[in-house]
Design brief:
The protein is an alpha/beta fold and 352 residues long. The chain is built from eight helices and 15 strands. The strands form two sheets. Strands 14-13-12-11-7-10-9-8-15 form a nine-stranded mixed β-sheet. It has a six-stranded parallel β-sheet with strand order 3-2-1-4-5-6, sandwiched between helices. α3 packs parallel to α4, α4 packs antiparallel against α8 and α5 crosses α6.
Length: 352
């Protein structure tokens, strides 16, 4: 079996440039083509990365079908284009790494997963947080029982822009925290609820499957209920100057906090519990432990995992197409709840 793969990067916007950078640096990857509809972007990356003359730069996806021996594609295009591009890529026999979300429709996601399995190809989704050292270590802490009996979870993801015109704050922001909670808990929500407020764009695009008629929500509050009764609460907003990236799980023995904005450490274990004395509850065993993390860029880990999966033809257990499908199913359920003013929606787990 060859230990080198030929890859094409499709879409070199803000995130696609980072994918290109990582694949160019990978010793087992030969970047043979870059596709983007904007010629000025192609010219910019050619100069930025000093690309070899034999790297094909094209505005047309169809040109890739003429590239001999192409092994895989990395897709970093708008989510509305994912389904058609991924389906065509799989039918051409290419392994696929797709930017999240996999698609905007759970049915399309399942179809693509089955298509990849049918053709014995890797379909992986770039859920970068699942490769973050803090998320990996946080999973070990939670599942080792160091928090005691789990009580609830919470997350806040806010900033001042960018404001999207194609999706609301739910689809733009929620997938990260949901993925982390699912990973730490080792579960998938069975019931979801969402409420939201619109200030900036009162009429959302009717063309988008997840766009409620009342517009694109700028502020969204989510509740996720897991099979064991655990609940996580998520606050999302893209017009809040107070930028936060904070997620925590609270247990009977303490809390685990993942705070990306922290200058000291992004992952902290806060021990603390109560001792009952008569009718009083007295805090005891309080201490703070800053957890040491491995170094390394999460996206580099994503790209390396994809390369290993392709070379071994073994799907990623961390971020397979099925993992991406589960997350889209949850977002779709939350969208229904948001459109219905917070009505609880039950999410079906994948069958088979």
């Amino acid at each position: 079996m060859t230990n080198q793969i030929k890859i094409a990067v499709i879409g070199i916007g803000r995130w696609g440039v980072h994918l290109l950078r990582n694949f160019l640096a990978h010793p087992q990857v030969n970047v043979v083509a870059v596709v983007d509809p904007h010629p000025e972007r192609l010219a910019a990356v050619k100069q930025q990365f000093n690309l070899d003359a034999d790297v094909i730069l094209t505005t047309q996806w169809e040109d890739l079908k003429k590239v001999p021996g192409l092994t895989a594609v990395a897709i970093a295009t708008p989510a509305t284009t994912h389904y058609a591009l991924i389906k065509d890529s799989l039918q051409q026999g290419y392994h696929v790494l797709a930017e999240k979300p996999l698609t905007l429709d759970p049915g399309e996601c399942r179809e693509l997963c089955y298509l990849a399995e049918q053709h014995h190809l890797i379909l992986m989704v770039d859920h970068t947080y699942l490769f973050h050292p803090a998320v990996e270590q946080g999973k070990a802490v939670v599942q080792a029982g160091k928090l005691g009996d789990l009580r609830y979870g919470y997350a806040t993801r806010t900033h001042l822009g960018p404001v999207r015109q194609d999706v609301d704050a739910l689809w733009d922001l929620a997938i990260h925290d949901i993925a982390i909670f699912n990973t730490w808990l080792g579960q998938i929500p069975v019931k979801v609820q969402a409420t939201g407020t619109v200030w900036l764009q009162e009429q959302g695009s009717r063309e988008l499957i997840h766009s409620p008629s009342q517009g694109l929500a700028d502020l969204v509050w989510l509740t996720l209920t897991y099979p064991d009764g655990f609940q996580a609460y998520i606050h999302l907003c893209w017009l809040n100057p107070d930028k936060q990236r904070r997620l925590g799980i609270v247990g009977s023995l303490g809390s685990l906090i993942f705070d990306e904005m922290s200058l000291s450490s992004s992952l902290t274990l806060l021990h603390g519990e109560f001792e009952q004395q008569g009718n009083q509850f007295i805090p005891i065993n309080q201490k703070q432990i800053v957890l040491e993390l491995e170094t390394g860029e999460p996206l580099e880990r994503v790209c390396s995992c994809f390369v290993v999966s392709v070379l071994n033809n073994t799907p990623s257990e961390v971020s397979s197409g099925w993992v991406g499908t589960e997350l889209v199913e949850i977002l779709a359920g939350l969208t229904v709840s948001l459109q219905q003013g917070g009505k609880p929606v039950f999410v079906n787990e994948r069958q088979g």
